Amino acid sequence: LRLSTDPTLMALFLSDFAKMLLVFCIIGLFPTAFAARVADKIYQEIQGDMACFKRFNGTHEVGCTSAFGGNVGVLYIPEDIEDIKWADEKGPHSPYIFGLTPSLFTSEVLMILKDSKNVNGIVLFNPDNQTYPEQDSPVSTCPSHEYGIYNESSSSEYKDYCTADAKESWNPVGTSLLYKSFNFPIFLIQDEESVNAITKCYNTYNRDSLGNYLDWPLCSLQLQSNMYGATNSEVCIRRTNSFAIVGINYCGPIHDYNIHGSLNEMNGELEDSSVIVVAARADAASMFDNISPGADSAVTGVVTLLAVAKALSKYKDDFKDANKNVLFILFEGETWDYLGSASMTYDMSESSFPFKFNPNDLSQVSNFNFSHIDYFIELSQLGIQDANDESQIYLYTDPISNTNTNIQEINDKIRKAMEDAGGMFNVNVKSVTDDKTTLPYPLPPASLQTFLKYFNISGAVLSDHSFQYKNKFYQSYLDNYKNVKFISSINNTNSSDDLHKHLYRIASTVSQSVYTMATQKSDKIDVNAVDENLISDLLLCFLRNVNCTLFREHVGQLLEQYIASYKYEYFQPRPAKMYSSVQGGEDILTNITLYLLGDFLGEEVLENEHECWSNSTSAVQMFFLPKMGENGTCIKSTPRLHSANSPAFRIPGYNFSSGLYPTWTESVWDTTKVRLFLKPSPVEEVGLVVGGCLFVILTVVLAYWADARAATLFVSSPAPTQC
């Protein structure tokens, strides 16, 4: 049967064909899965894993977000602030996505763009060969001041120190950009190929070799980083709890785990003033996801503490004979208003650190509280140095505590022990005092302040700065290995590197002073007690390459399984991320550090994996390292994790605006990405849409017309003659 012989069948065929054509036209106008190949021809994927994201506290939201489908804008790369003002006020192709170099990524520029209606986003170019600005610190001039002991609600004479109106500030270059809210996305792009692709596209389509601006089509960007959370922590958590039954999550509390381990086992009743605390902060931050190097703000303190722990582990018996112990603590989340120390001190005040006392558990680790602390040594920023052959560190004590004669006497002993030990290892230890009164200067931002809010204890903070931070990139993406002048390749430390020698001298000084004060012996510790090569290896792992042998060796089996199921390959040649995220977000590094401290404080026992794990108790931790040694290594040690979870999220009915405890949360998001493409003129875009719609309408009309006149248009052929 031929269609041409039957007008009805022919009409049906054309009608069905018209319907199919209509369906295909509709499909062509709307994105679907099979259109991916077309999208690949239109868009070029750019590095998009370092987005500015939303965080919240009890009263505000800070950070960045995009529209649900992303923000689109014409790319504009200014050369100076006048170019920025021109594009903001007179730019003919708005809205724009601004491409900025670090030198233009300043508070002044971002405040101009924040208030503009012609800005849809910012990309910050920072390839490894980029020239650094002189300074970049996105936190405040007085970090976490409201949660310290010198805040405005304090009754002390120091309550006005480092306030918004005060002349003194610890971080004078602080811009507080981390605490601003932007209604457009901001991305950091470090990948050199991505930066080159963007600049090439811009110089080809948006600006000619003479500097003249070109017309359509123009190089453009799509930035997608839509955040689910909004308003503040209280509202966001309430929304999350309301929709928990359907699995919708808007935000979560910032959370990680403090690490603490004692030189000797702690069990039974502890005597008052029998434990020396050596502490450091283990976290850092920046405006962007996936980058928080914290070279000076965190890593130098962590590395020094680990080196001190390993050095003093060689003298356990001397400490035991002196009835003294040392508790090493690495606090997480201190960037967020002393989250880690606030959590630990709250548990101490509730007699539940490290655990609630259980009279039925005879092997339970000792319950630890403030009265057990002899004195507190905090290792703060230690990486910025002025000379190569001698190290300079500054010692701070609390002037309020020093009004107590007993406290001042112990603080003076700490100072004297540090100065004497420094003389042995070529370290100049200088106490920071007020030039006018010669009284001790207030403590810089430090975890010790959180402890002093609860209990009057002796203590000192060691740092590389006097009065003001030397670190001009505090809590910045630029606080990396270059900032502390760490000389190395991605795999090896250069023999001429001075940072590891500098930290070796400081670690030796701290080890010697703690040993002298605890044992009351004048003996000098072994000059090789602090392992200089270990410091070098730790710096390499933290600052340059987490895919290092030392880190890989200190991965337990459970952590190895967790990493295998992780959303991306953790062990890559990149710096460690020191950021404290939501629970389960960035805790791989925390666990590796736990195993490092366990190894350094512990002793090897000849047990297989099963025996090793089965012998753990409350007071004794067993660590099995499958990649260390031929058949793995079992370590008997003391370190354990302590949940750095703010009491604000544990106390029923807590008032989130009270300012008593940290209330920081982090928004949830689905994906972040950056795409480069050529954008036609608005007239052309409208023309294409209108043309497509007219084509569909015309197709429908023609199909209907052909269907109605099928009998006329398609005449039957005569029947074939019978033979």
UniProtKB/TrEMBL annotation:
Keywords: Glycoprotein, Membrane, Notch signaling pathway, Signal, Transmembrane, Transmembrane helix
GO process annotations (BP): Notch receptor processing; Notch signaling pathway; protein processing
Listed GO CC annotations: plasma membrane
Any matching Pfam family: Nicastrin
InterPro entries according to UniProt: Ncstrn_small (IPR041084), Nicastrin (IPR008710)
Keyword Signal: yes
Keyword Signal attributed: yes
Residues in Nicastrin small lobe domain copies: 51-228
Family assignment from sequence similarity: Belongs to the nicastrin family.
Protein name, per record: Nicastrin
